[in-house]
Write a structure and sequence with these properties.
mainly beta, Metal Binding Protein, Guanine Nucleotide Exchange Factor, Chain A
Length: 93
Amino acid sequence: MKAIWNGAVIAESDDTVVVEGNHYFPRDAVKDEFLEKSSTTTVCGWKGTASYYTLRVEGATNRDAAWYYPEPKSAAAEIRGRVAFWKGVEVTR
């Protein structure tokens, strides 16, 4: 699977975990040069508190377009250490 935004491959891995229709990529499969930590957090009742990254590619910014669960609840343990995408990021084979 690949996560692509603004013409750049942000992440690529054959080892994604799909939860609620979202592919969670291993963190080490995500390219650091495109990520900027965000102060945004949200709470999911069964997964826990999500943190976000803003994507920066070729001078373009996609705020909070990637998220992860630093300390997921036990029901979501399979996504620990993984990152998912939205906001126009294309996830494809």
